[in-house]
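Structure first, sequence second, as always.
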């Protein structure tokens, strides 16, 4: 494919606070530098961007990921691949409930997931995540995205004040046992600011989530639980959320620094297959 020179992008906001669809762009073609900069700015402005109707190879997906930064490394490479995906390029993870010989071919196979930030349990979390739909169920498996900016900016001072300047512990259990190590649990955990300042926009965002945040450091457990639960409830309010109903060929990119996401349940009898890449983080959260 050649180089696309379309610099006037059709950017359609999806909600007041988060999400925009970028139409008329074929990611198999390499946009010119001006277009890449405009796409990047749309990502900063809208936190989540959607490219509908794509038909990408693995190479296309990786090239598109690089428009936003360095390709992130996988924390757990897939061991099994479905027909047509026997050769997975480094940096691509399968998100799928498809099973071969009784084992899932990808990560995060089944059911719903509570709101979370990708890789918040690592010292330098992912900057962004890109997800490409290859097979989707007839219903469910929607992804919800919540604006951490909107949550912070509308937060009751009675909740915000005692949490300003604090740090929170995030723990993620991979839900499996490390093989060959006597059944030791596989997990990571890390401490980050409760409110994160985005290094590019300078805006503050809520940076805790219901799935992984365990406690506020140096705070009494009862007070930590009270404030965190109130913060989770506020951050997940529908007015701050965009719910994406997947279509075949959708490519989504979200900013992990200022948004959290969740997944709805879907029929376990139906196949769901996504290809996932990440944009490597560049700095510890501040």
């Amino acid at each position: 494919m050649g180089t696309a020179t379309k610099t006037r992008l059709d950017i359609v906001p999806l909600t007041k606070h988060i999400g925009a669809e970028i139409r008329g762009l074929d990611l198999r073609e390499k946009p010119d530098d001006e277009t890449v900069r405009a796409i990047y700015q749309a990502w900063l402005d809208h936190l989540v961007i959607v490219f509908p109707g794509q038909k990408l190879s693995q190479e296309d997906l990786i090239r598109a990921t690089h428009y936003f930064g360095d390709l992130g490394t996988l924390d757990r490479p897939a061991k099994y691949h479905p027909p047509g995906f026997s050769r997975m390029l480094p940096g691509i993870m399968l998100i799928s409930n498809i099973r071969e010989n009784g084992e899932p071919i990808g990560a995060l196979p089944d059911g719903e997931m509570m709101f979370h930030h990708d890789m918040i349990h690592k010292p330098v979390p992912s900057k962004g995540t890109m997800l490409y739909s290859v097979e989707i169920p007839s219903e469910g498996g929607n992804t919800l995205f919540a604006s951490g900016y909107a949550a912070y900016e509308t937060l009751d001072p009675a909740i915000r004040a005692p949490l300003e300047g604090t740090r929170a512990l995030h723990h993620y259990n991979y839900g499996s046992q490390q093989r060959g190590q006597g059944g030791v649990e596989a997990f990571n955990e890390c401490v980050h600011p409760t409110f994160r300042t985005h290094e590019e926009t300078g805006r503050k965002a809520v940076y805790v989530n219901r799935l992984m945040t365990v406690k506020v450091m140096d705070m009494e457990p009862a007070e930590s639980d009270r404030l965190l639960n109130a913060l989770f409830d506020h951050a997940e309010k529908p007015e701050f959320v965009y719910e994406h109903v997947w279509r075949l060929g959708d490519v989504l990119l979200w900013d992990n620094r200022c948004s959290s996401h969740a997944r709805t349940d879907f029929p376990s009898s139906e196949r769901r297959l996504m290809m996932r890449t990440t944009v490597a983080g560049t700095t510890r959260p501040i």
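Margin note: The longest strand covers residues 167-177.
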